[in-house]
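Let us practice reading a record.
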Amino acid sequence: MINYLSMPAYQHIFFDLDHTLWDFERCSCETLEELFETYRLSDLAAITSAKFVETFRTINRNLWTLYSNGQISQQELRKTRFIRILNELSIDDISVAQRLADEYIYLCPLKPHLLPYAREVLEYLKDKYVMHIITNGFADIQFVKMQSASITGFFKEIITSEKAGCQKPNRKIFDYALQQTKAQPKQSIMIGDSLDSDIQGAINAEIDHVFFNYEQVTHQATPTYEIKCLSELKQLL
């Protein structure tokens, strides 16, 4: 049980964006379903839109792991993602893959969907704390997502891995964020959904953290705090 009376007096909140505030799964799924119909992919192979979305999720997750480990570049991720997806679905058409790649990058960030209670919680926190974003996502895409969801105004600084020159969980991106925001570690708290990047990164930087475990995964980690719904932040903070 959390002892709220003994909690530190935080001044700065650092949020992750994708899967924490912006509903990546819903936005991505909607975009993929639209592209599936636009390009009539069921005419090119015996597949359903659900199979297309499932294949995207698997390959995209694997590519992001490679990118996070420095094994592929941003350009390679974007260029090869849909080629690999169509190959997996037995569709050999590089021109279609390229058009899908371009349209996905353009359309998906325009989706405005946030996770449940995200806006309500941001409204609640905005006058109590200085809020920032720390994201491993591509800078050009992340800014569009935030504008589309109308949440840019809640945040003072948007810290991207491209600006920092490294990605979460590398301590350097958190040190860079603290420097840019003039925040002290003991006055700061990180909120994110990833144990591997958000939580481990905060641990590396000696910053308190909230693990947003909305999928209720079983784990052995011992985060500072853990929540299953963003609405719990109104009690925590």
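A brief commentary: Strands lie at 12-15, 130-135, 157-160, 188-192, 208-212, 225-227.
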